[in-house]
Amino acid sequence: xxxxxxxxxxxxxxxxxxxxxxxxxxxxxxxxxxxxxxxxxxxxxxxxxxxxxxxxxxxxxxxxxxxxxxxxxxxxxxxxxxxxxxxxxxxxxxxxxxxxxxxxxxxxxxxxxxxxxxxxxxxxxxxxxxxxxxxxxxxx
Length: 140
Fold this sequence. Notes:
Shape: globular
Low-confidence stretches: none
Helix content: 10-25%
Strand order of the largest sheet: 1-3-4-5-2
């Protein structure tokens, strides 16, 4: 099966916006993290599972984002989520937010490191998790 982006539909809500009625900058990352959590659940590694069973952790160590076009309260967008880099113990996620006509309105990226939950030392990405991530691995 060929890798493809994970698609996450989202409607911009009042709590996502600032006084101008557009996405508040910090909420870009919350919205993207919501799509990340949905992708992780789809892969069989829900955040709830990871927190309850603690087989390994995936803390966020870097994030960045850009806005290309305002997204307003009530706008329906689709977030394209992909694994852009897959390294020994880390992976980079990229998120592209699109309007219904496909126009990019924002983008974000996060880097996660797989860690041992007792020591928080980095560790190799477990084989089953790496295989799951590869479903959405679309490097540049």
